User: Fold these one by one.
Assistant:
Number 1:
Amino acid sequence: MTGWRLIFLFLVLASCTGTEKVTERRYVDLKGFFTEEISRLGKSKAKVNKTVSRNGSSESKDNISPDWNIELSLFSESDINKPAWSNSYVVSENNDSTSYIATDNKLRTRSILIRKNRDGGIAQLSIVNSTKNHLYSSSEELLYIPDSLYQIIKKQDVLVLGNNSYKISGFFN
């Protein structure tokens, strides 16, 4: 009889594992969105007029075909869908926009604002990133308007090297 009880107990315990489903909050899938954009822009051979500025000095090139993986990498890297961050952003929605605001000032991606078009797709995407420690501080303002503009404004302050500011603007042809 003891053997049967042990087998019964084992079967009951085995049937209980894995039955609970943990629901995880999902935020906007920036990584997925930009993976699709990179593919779409590459296939369409999209060209831009690009201006790069560093500390006030700028250089422009017209009608270039950029490497979209590189150009849009900061946008993709701002993805906030990590299990540890499932409750780290306050989400506010209305008819034409959704915003994500970090609740912890240690998170790199501080805010995301998505403006939607009439079809519910992304009309404009703004991201603010910030990193700070005792040796280094960096802030990034990212703006993406599909088929119109991408812009990156970055400011860095490195203890030994000083301040630098960068601005990259790509206007689609």
Note: The helical segments are 2-16, 30-43, 68-71, 73-76.
Number 2:
Amino acid sequence: METIVFKNKALPFVELRYVKEIPACSKKHLHKELTFTAIKKGQLNIEFNENNFLLDVGEIVLINKDIVHCATLNRSSKDGYVLYLDEEFLIENSFSFPKRYEHLKQKDLYERFIFFCDSLLDKNISLIEKKELLYLFCLDIFTSKSNDKKDEENQNLSSQIKEYLDENFLEEISLDDLSRRFGITEVHLIRVFKKSFGLPIHSYILNKKVHLAKELLLSKAPIVEVALKSGFFDQSHLNRCFKRVFQITPKQFQKNILDKC
């Protein structure tokens, strides 16, 4: 049975367990964290003392801590994701959450959950980006208790954040640094920026770096040199991000452009 666990001391409030072949779990149990469960194939029967329901592909079950439950196989099931999230993390960030459990059937929410889980398991994605994806996932799932400021104030704030990122995108920038600089929580930081510009902060920074790399590639500089000058860890890191934005590798771009010059 293939099992992969994501757990990192830099993100102590989240843990993810992926199981390729899902076993039956007929013994009633509980967890000390909120748990999210989703599958890519099959069907689970989620049982509580007073209720039960079938969990299908395209759905998520969210269970609060200390809620006794079990999961049995209604059909052979594969590719199971179980995410554990610390309740204190949610409280500190003013998220409200169900007291017992919820059966979430929105397909788009399921797809974003699977994407988030796969990103946590991806060794090529930095911890900074994983942390931001966690906040974005929480903003999708939970209701925030905190009241947003007026739209005009938020727009002004997001413009200030963008200006700072435009000037400093080659530096090491963390969400904690930005939240302290602008005197707001990390959740509010992410919310207002994505609402204004349509991209998470980390994705915006990567786009800035990729476009700088594109300009440098036109100078016939070696790709490994371009990678370092545009803020990437190495050529491999540049290749992944460049292809994500332009659908071709830096080498393909450089060859096809320069051959015509």
Note: The mean pLDDT is 89.
Number 3:
Amino acid sequence: MGKTSTKLEVKRKDHVIERDISRVICRLLIHGGNPARVKNIYYRILKLGDSETTKLLNKVLDEFAERHKNIRETFHRYYEKVRAYIPSQNGAPLNRDRKLLIGAYFSMEYSLESAALFNPSIVPH
């Protein structure tokens, strides 16, 4: 069977789509609900030194803080949700920076408008 190709005509418009950072939300990301994957990420973060943890957290906060109000509280809330996937630790309690970084690792940004705009189901087959 030979391949058939269809020419697609593209017509450029003068409209420009600009981002609107006020329309981006931060969502919990549990990586498919796979507990083994969650534990792996969690334990990798536990292996970081305190200074590296703080440095990474500050980098994430610098990037996210402009787009999300109360991002620290959001990260802490996500840490609390992820904790359910992790067996209890008998070691020293985690400091606030490490908890926030764990919450950040289980966060994702989501834009409803871009999801609607770039939804592949609206493209003709």
Note: The CA atoms of residues 56 and 95 lie 14 Å apart.
